[in-house]
Write a structure and sequence with these properties.
It is a single chain. The protein has one helix and four strands, in the order βββαβ. It is mainly beta. Strands 1, 2, 3 and 4 form a four-stranded antiparallel beta sheet that branches. The longest helix is centred in the middle third of the chain and has 7 residues. The radius of gyration is 11 Å and the shape is globular. It is found in: Nucleus. Homodimers and heterodimers.
């Protein structure tokens, strides 16, 4: 999703139900209302 110094990063968030979702999968208003926690991970860590 983001490229910084040739390392790929992915942003995920935990919703109010405890499920982890990728940022960008839902509309902004839904994200703001349901996001409890953010996680920024190197792409290797999500495989």
């Amino acid at each position: 999703m983001f490229k910084c110094f040739s390392v790929e990063f992915t942003v995920a968030y935990e919703d109010k139900d405890g499920d982890w979702m990728l940022a960008g999968d839902v509309p902004w208003k839904m994200f703001v209302c349901s996001c409890k926690r953010l996680r920024i991970m190197k792409d290797q860590s999500i495989n």
